[in-house]
Every structure is written in C-alpha cells, then in structure tokens.
Amino acid sequence: MTMSLGPYASFIVASYAAVALVVAILIGWVMLDYRSQTQRLRELEQRGITRRSGRSATEPR
C-alpha cells in the first residue's frame, strides 16, 4: 500500500521525523532523570535520611 503525499511530501516526512526525534530525546531524558533521582534517594537512605512514605528507593512499586 503506497500513499501519495503530494507536493508537500518532504515537509510531511521531515515533520514526522522531527517529532519522532523529539519524542525519543524526551524518553531518554526521562529515563536518565529517573536513574539519577533513584540514585540520589539511595544515597540519602544510606546516610540515614528516610522517606515519609516508608518505602526504599530499591523497592518495586
């Protein structure tokens, strides 16, 4: 199944590619931030500072 995008095909394809790139970057950023925050929580717990929720940073949700 081929689709003709007309004279604006390059703009449409470039737009979708740009959005896909931005979404991939945001997903990567969130993953890195999650790791960073989890590591910070572990460090605080090792120093004796506990969370009000009582859960450990290493416990699964």
Automatic annotation (TrEMBL):
It is found in: Cell inner membrane. The keyword Cell membrane applies. It is a single-pass membrane protein. It comes from the Bacteria. Pfam families: CcmD (PF04995). Its main location: membrane. GO terms for cellular component: plasma membrane. One of its GO terms (biological process) is cytochrome complex assembly. Keywords: Cell inner membrane, Cell membrane, Cytochrome c-type biogenesis, Membrane, Transmembrane, Transmembrane helix, Transport. The chain crosses the membrane at residues 12-32. The keyword Cell membrane applies. Belongs to the CcmD/CycX/HelD family. NCBIfam families: cytochro_ccmD. Required for the export of heme to the periplasm for the biogenesis of c-type cytochromes. This is Heme exporter protein D. It comes from Bradyrhizobium yuanmingense.
